[in-house]
UniProtKB/TrEMBL annotation, chain A:
<dbReference type="Pfam" id="PF02839">
    <property type="entry name" value="CBM_5_12"/>
</dbReference>
<dbReference type="GO" id="GO:0005975">
    <property type="term" value="P:carbohydrate metabolic process"/>
</dbReference>
<protein>
    <submittedName>
        <fullName>Chitin-binding protein</fullName>
    </submittedName>
</protein>
<dbReference type="InterPro" id="IPR014756">
    <property type="entry name" value="Ig_E-set"/>
</dbReference>
<feature type="signal peptide">
    <location>
        <begin position="1"/>
        <end position="28"/>
    </location>
</feature>
<feature type="compositionally biased region" description="Low complexity">
    <location>
        <begin position="195"/>
        <end position="219"/>
    </location>
</feature>
<keyword id="KW-0732">Signal</keyword>
<dbReference type="GO" id="GO:0005576">
    <property type="term" value="C:extracellular region"/>
</dbReference>
<dbReference type="InterPro" id="IPR051024">
    <property type="entry name" value="GlcNAc_Chitin_IntDeg"/>
</dbReference>
UniProtKB/TrEMBL annotation, chain B:
<feature type="domain" description="DUF305">
    <location>
        <begin position="56"/>
        <end position="202"/>
    </location>
</feature>
<dbReference type="Pfam" id="PF03713">
    <property type="entry name" value="DUF305"/>
</dbReference>
<dbReference type="InterPro" id="IPR005183">
    <property type="entry name" value="DUF305_CopM-like"/>
</dbReference>
<protein>
    <submittedName>
        <fullName>Uncharacterized protein (DUF305 family)</fullName>
    </submittedName>
</protein>
<dbReference type="InterPro" id="IPR012347">
    <property type="entry name" value="Ferritin-like"/>
</dbReference>
<keyword id="KW-0732">Signal</keyword>
<feature type="signal peptide">
    <location>
        <begin position="1"/>
        <end position="20"/>
    </location>
</feature>
Amino acid sequence: MRRKIAYPLATLGMVASSLAVASSPALAHGYVSSPPSRQAQCAAGAVANCGAIQFEPQSAEAPKGSKQCNGGVAAFPELNNDSLPWRATNVGKSATFNWVLTARHRTATWVYYVDGNPIATFDDKNAIPSATVSHTVDLSRFSGRKTVLAVWNIGDTPMAFYNCVDVNIGGSGGGSATPTAPPATAAPTTPPATTPTTAPTTAPTTAAPTATAAPTGTVPATGTAWAPGVAYKINDVVTYEGVSYKCRQAHQSIRSWEPGIWTLALWLPL
Amino acid sequence: MKRRVAAVLALAAAPLLLGACGTAVDKPAPPSNTATQADVKNVAEITAGSTFNDTDVMFLQMLIDNLEQGQEMARTAAKRATRPQVAELAKAVQVTQADEIKLMKSWLAEWDKPATLDERISLHADHGGMPSTGDKEIASLTTVKKAQFETAFLNLFLAHQHNAVEFAQLELDKGGNELARSFAERVKQSRTDQVQQMLKLLAG
């Protein structure tokens, strides 16, 4: 009898928690990734001192009708700050804006503004956006550095998502501006301590991938200290916390991909 | 049957245990020395311990679903990407996430919980949003023209990894199991840094 009561209670617990899940990240929905919007440059680490937006570039959500880069969201004042070193992407007579959508909302319109005036509107007629969203916008009336305001107007809520995209119209043939130096990545944290005591079983099987050309920095064949932001190739040897490891899958290292028990697919202990 | 009852009771008791979290009910083992870590050959050997709440369970279930979709996207990218850096990132994501799936499934098995979500869509329906990457969006990666592939993949996978960060944040806010929480921190870091890489790849 007690069992029968316990089940519904547990089920209620799950429902409550799924509602909590639904409400918590509800504010995070989309941004322009390329040409990089200001929030994309923050999330990429290309511009420092961005505040909270760097962790959630998809969250510049505010009621419809704003002409500000942050849509009026007080938590993201950096987006409105024209004196931050925003990179202006060189574009030709037109530019194609690509969106990252972290949740697909029914969409009224996508509107692009320059100098406060709408220059292009794409009417989605309240449909769910397709797999990839990109819009080619005619910019031939303008030249030089401009800030394009790109707005995603949601169809079934009063809200919109705001992005400023800095472009240099007619600037040297549409190529990219000089890339900025890679940002310093924070030192990796030590992996959570666990001491499994069972005997090791067979190593995870990962097919040996073919080596591809390393795009950036090279690594000596004998162990240097592991670091984030390095392009490691297969058979590169690194040391981490006193242990040597051999790279088994070429990759650009990032935080939490340091050698250890969590990353045996990348690093073979020697 | 007995085991199942025990799991249900544990779940019902979870709020109480959560309240006692500060008293280190479920403290993981003290830091291991690296030699021991180097001996471990399979992440599935890592056990999570018996203290957990329903956020821990939901986090693992949602992330397994996210990662299984991610495996499909990364597999496609490893084949179709034009630039070696994109293919390489996809392969590295594939092998690391394969281990993460093993790890999470072994924890859910340890807790006697299913490894699958009942419904993916219902989690988001309440606030009007569809998930960023449904079956249709993932399938589109196999049909999009080669010239548009990288842009399509990177934008979809950016959203996908942002979603994983959102799940991890939920676990960090409300999860009860210490190991699941430290795993969530790793997920948050690795995806945040993958986002950086992908945005740079998109910007050319």
